[in-house]
TrEMBL record:
Identification of the protein by name: Uncharacterized protein
InterPro entries per UniProt: ARM-like (IPR011989)
Protein origin, superkingdom: Bacteria
Amino acid sequence: MNLVSCPAKNCPTVRWALGKLKDVRACESLIASLKDKNLEVVAAAYSFFIKRGMSDTETVLIEALDKYGTKKMAMDFLSCRNSDLKEAAYEWAKIRGYKIKPYPDSIDVPVWGNNG
């Protein structure tokens, strides 16, 4: 049995691993989670979605940040070059009492639409 057809593929950690694969079936599985608004999976695989840069996905990504966000996730949103995600990151941090700033350009972060 491969990872894509594994029954545990609904587990957020498994979905995160699927996001690291360059397999079309893995991508389809993650995109289905986004469309279904499975926020736990979206939060676990947010880097995959940022790199895809799919239009009209920011709202679900922001909902995932609000519900399952971490400081690293907020920092990545802040530095990903998407103005909606940047604004959401500042708001998320403010509500939680964090002070965040963008990563230096030398740090490798997911960039909106840079499917690398």
